Amino acid sequence: MLRKSQVAPALWLSVLLAGCAALETGPSREDLAKIEHLVVIYAENRSFDNLYGLFPGANGIANASSEAATQLDRDGTVLSRLPPVWKHGKPDPAFPTKLPNRPFRIDAPPSSLPLSVPIPDPVHLFYVNQEQIAGGRNNMFAALSNVGGLVMGYYDGSSMRMWKLAREFVLADNFFQAAFGGSFLNHQWLICACTPHDPHAPASLRTQLDEGGRLRRRGNIPSALDGPLWFLEDRYSPDGYAVNSVQPPYQPSAIRPAAGGDPRYADPAGSPLPPQTTKTIGDTLSAKGISWAWYSGAWKLALEDGMKPSGKHEVIYNAEKGSPDFAPHHQPFNYYARFAPGTADRERHLKDYLDFVEAIDRGTLPQVAFYKPEGVLNQHPGDADLLAGDRHIAEVIARIRASTLWAKTAIIVTYDENGGFWDHVAPPKGDRWGPGTRIPTIVVSPWAKKGYVDSTPYDTTSILKFITRRFGLEPLPGVRENMGDLTGAFDFSQR
């Protein structure tokens, strides 16, 4: 098997280009038809280097340039050390205050935090992500963060079950989040390769940029060594595009129903995103009669909870320890008029995790299935630890492998975005919206290549490309032409 570590640097570019060229032809329609079910599992907020930077044969931390590994201060000078790990604005006692200015192991001395311990949640906003990437130099992550040096931390993930599946099947080490910033926008790009728009978005919710085009800060701390950065969090771009977390117009939503209004809807006074009408992958699948569904952990509980006219959001806000911690902005189809409350499409396509499990066990899974784990199981920093989500996702995959579906199924496990964590690889040239930072992606299937590191350039829209190619669908306009379609992860000559 050809590994990057076995190829001279001067030859690696030609190998990469040859792989891209192969995608232009790729597998035949007959080969692709062997995949009757495609499952996309969408985890949360981890960069590639944060979890797989030590993966054998991959483009990992050892390949980071000194420019990318050495972080700069807010004035552009080299930091003498990493900033402290900030927690609630103060140094976190779990970490040393004078870490060297380079990537460091979170799960090794001197901090030695195991993968079972949640860590603080770094800022991950649309404009901030672009500033951290710094034109591809990736050297402004630590300075432009609310958690300081933590963003340079990474794990030895070899004990994870998903790592073992990556060793068995395919790990893509050149896969990028489609959009800059956070979860809301990247979930939208997963289903429509688009950025939602509200031409009437309130001025108070639109981005405030300074004279240099940067997101405005709260306060002014010149050096990252002296304190974290807090940003004036925006929801919309100056021209009304929803670039950060905006709430859906339908329940479940973090915006309660209006008093005396329809409990299925969010109160318009709370400024939810207006119902969207852009074409999604769901529209194109339905138009050709391809069965599909979006499954969410705790969907039914959150739906019931969201329609309560008053009181606390017990599910949406994780008010009690161990509750599901449901995030409404992780449910992209709930923003679209086609899936409004009372519609047949909503009933047919938006479902609960328990429905997912039942469909797997009965062998009735739709041809395309998206699965979003609930908050405590999606590996999101701050709310979840790594091991619980790793165990859960691996168990879902094991369930599929033990079912009658396995012989004809492909599973793609990826992350919505980097969660504010550093990665050393410069994102490819794109457009106004992205691509953003590199994220992990694993392909599991009887037809996936075995023990393979796939370095083809991909982003989140590559999943849409693969679905489109497999089922002969009309391409969505926003899908990027310079990204691969994931067919490079498969070898249909096997078996």
- Please report the number of helical segments: 13
The radius of gyration computed from the alpha-carbon positions, rounded to a whole number of angstroms, is: 22 Å
CATH topology: Alkaline Phosphatase, subunit A
The helix fraction, in percent, is 10-25%
Largest sheet data: 8 strands, mixed
Topology at a glance:
Elements lengths: L8 H17 L3 H4 L4 E7 L4 H5 L13 H4 L16 E2 L2 E2 L12 E2 L20 H8 L19 E2 L6 H8 L1 E3 L2 E2 L6 H10 L88 H7 L4 E5 L2 H8 L37 H6 E3 H10 L5 E5 L13 H16 L7 E7 L25 E4 L7 E3 L3 E2 L1 H11 L24
Description:
With 495 residues, the protein is α/β, with parallel strands linked by helices. The chain has one domain: 3-Layer(aba) Sandwich (Alkaline Phosphatase, subunit A). The chain has helices spanning 9-25, 29-32, 48-52, 66-69, 126-133, 161-168, 183-192, 281-287, 299-306, 344-349, 353-362, 386-401, 461-471, and strands at residues 37-43, 86-87, 90-91, 104-105, 153-154, 170-172, 175-176, 292-296, 350-352, 368-372, 409-415, 441-444, 452-454, 458-459. Strand 4 (104-105), helix 5 (126-133) and strand 5 (153-154) form a beta-alpha-beta unit. Residues 1-24 have low confidence and may be disordered.
